[in-house]
Design brief:
Oligomer: single chain
Distance between the termini: 56 Å
Family: Belongs to the RNase PH family.
Helix content: 25-40%
Main location: cytoplasm
Radius of gyration: 21 Å
GO molecular function, one term: mRNA 3'-UTR AU-rich region binding
Pfam family, one: RNase_PH
CATH topology: Ribosomal Protein S5, domain 2
GO cellular component, one term: nucleolus
Number of helices: 6
């Protein structure tokens, strides 16, 4: 009977749980799904991480390549993020060029990198005007069950913390670059941005870390990105229900707490990996 009611009236079915301050999966409204991170799982990448947020599973691989810096940014390298939502991760996605949600997620990650200044692009420059690193950050969703933005931002941060770049010099006689694979340096991560997403129900109720089903039923979503100093990096709100100042402040406060949990999790995993 409950299954039939859920199929016919999914929103009403959901509201009955919300009235009791809980959700169909047993979580409280402000409770995140179980979160795990595995670092360095792709041996062919220069840095990688696998993040699970409940059933939502995302992998990020970072590949570093050498290139000439842009003429107007002679002392800066590049960071090129890309989020893929292949048909493999959910029946809602089709093969072919990236859909709207994948494009929006890629843009969100690019904005997080830019707004948080997590990496100074000057750190990626090897020789001004001649040589710089390009970091291709490919984020691929393996299993989609909502809140792709939090999982993608987490996977990106964990993968970048895993990156080791070989030392590169330019041979003055030949003018060619020489790469020393035996001497590797970790990337300098200057800020640790963490995303925290909420779904808005019936224009007023906030629930944290929504599943795909919850996102579909919600009247809006909002994602807050904060850094180590509890500073707000960005607020991502693609339309939907408006939020009062008090509700937004509530989201920011919860995001600051979540930041500490995520940072702790990454630090713990990195500590457990034996240095190579």
């Amino acid at each position: 009977m409950a299954t039939a009611f859920k199929t016919v009236e999914p929103l009403e079915y959901y509201r009955r749980f919300l009235k009791e301050n809980c959700r169909p999966d047993g979580r409280e409204l402000g409770e995140f799904r179980a979160t795990t991170v595995n670092i360095g799982s792709i041996t062919t990448a220069d840095g990688s991480a696998l993040v699970k947020l409940g059933n939502t599973t995302v992998i990020c691989g970072v590949k570093a390549e050498l290139a000439a810096p842009a003429a107007d940014s002679a002392n800066k390298g590049y960071i090129v993020p890309n989020v893929e939502l292949p048909p493999l991760c959910s029946t809602r996605f089709r093969s072919g060029p990236p859909g709207e949600e994948a494009q929006a997620a890629s843009q969100f990650i690019a904005d997080v990198i830019e707004n948080s200044q997590m990496i100074a692009k000057e750190d990626l420059c090897i020789v001004s005007g001649k040589l710089a690193w390009v970091l291709y950050c490919d984020i691929i969703c393996l299993d989609y069950d909502g809140n792709i933005l939090d999982a993608s931002a987490f996977a990106l941060l964990a993968a970048l913390k895993n990156v080791q770049l070989p030392s590169v010099t330019i041979n003055e006689e030949t003018g060619l670059s020489e790469v020393n694979l035996k001497q590797k340096n970790r990337l300098i991560i200057r800020k640790h941005p963490v995303a925290t997403s909420f779904a808005i129900f019936d224009d007023t109720l906030l629930i944290v870390d929504p599943t795909a089903e919850e996102e579909d039923l919600a009247t809006g979503t909002v994602t807050i990105v904060t850094d180590d100093e509890d500073k707000l990096c960005s607020v991502h709100k693609p339309g939907g229900s408006p939020l009062t100042g008090a509700k937004l402040q509530d989201c920011i406060t919860r995001a600051v707490t979540r930041h500490k949990e995520v940072k702790k999790l990454i630090d713990k995993v990195i500590k457990s990996i034996k240095p190579q």
